[in-house]
């Protein structure tokens, strides 16, 4: 998928908050190595840098577009282009941090998460946040629009199973491998503004690959259909703002 950092960062505040909540739970005071897996445009990596200025910090991502933005904003941080599908750390890492990334990876979490945890140093942590909002109208409306249009045959194979599993799944998977394991979920009631705020939010992530797969005029037709559906599902309140509840799952595994 090609990322558009500008569109993604339009809702940067809402997207940053879960990363800060995850970070606040990491007990490590002086890690020597920290890697931000799927660092994107690097805004969260910069916060990791501020918390652990002495650590050797690397921001890693497979999107050249995101990394251009990251390098521009924070030239003093080490950025690396790599694909998490075949990435392994050179040496065990004290803090492996991953905010809003692992649900994008096409490797089953049964193998991906234990593999990442194996790259964590003894007494280190694997800290993960993933959206778990895939059954909500923000996402199901997209699949409805995909199935309803002349593009259905081409786009339907792109519809993925829910990538983020239940807390029980991750508990059973990681408990035998962890010294301590903390898993929690939070539903953020995001207050967002604009005529199509939920569609604009999703356009920065889940909607984009579907739009990229079409040419005009189908591209705009799919986007319009999605916008109508999602607007009907999330009506603005009396002050004109829209509440967009968004559930996220957090995992903190200590080795
Ligand atoms: C939703 S963004 C999150 C960015 C950042 N972590 C943040 O919290 O703002 C997801 C990021 O994961 C990256 N990503 C997705 N699949 C990847 C893979 N296989 N290897 C490395 N990075 C990947 C994308 O390029 C994108 O920058």
Commentary on this structure:
This protein has 255 residues and is α/β, with parallel strands linked by helices. It has a single domain, classed as Rossmann fold, CATH 3.40.50.150. The chain is 39% helix and 24% strand. It has eleven helices and seven strands. A seven-stranded mixed beta sheet has the order 3-2-1-4-5-7-6. The mean pLDDT is 95. Residues 3, 15, 19, 38-40, 43-44, 61-63, 66, 83-85, 99-101, 104-105, 205 line the site of S-adenosylmethionine (SAM). Residues 3, 15, 19, 38-40, 43-44, 61-63, 66, 83-85, 99-101, 104-105, 205 line the site of S-adenosylmethionine.
State which percent range the strand residues make up: 15-25%
Side-by-side strand order of the widest sheet = 3-2-1-4-5-7-6
By DSSP (H or I, 4+ residues per run), the number of helices equals: 11
Specify the overall morphology: globular
Poorly predicted regions are none
The CATH top-level class label: Alpha Beta
User: What is the helix fraction of residues, given as a range?
Assistant: 25-40%
The SSE order reads HHEHEHEEHEHHHEHHHE
- Distance between the terminal alpha carbons, to the nearest Å? 32 Å
The number of strands is: 7
CATH topology: Rossmann fold
Question: What would CATH call the homologous superfamily?
Answer: Vaccinia Virus protein VP39
Q: In CATH terms, what is the architecture?
A: 3-Layer(aba) Sandwich
Question: How would you characterize the largest beta sheet?
Answer: 7 strands, mixed
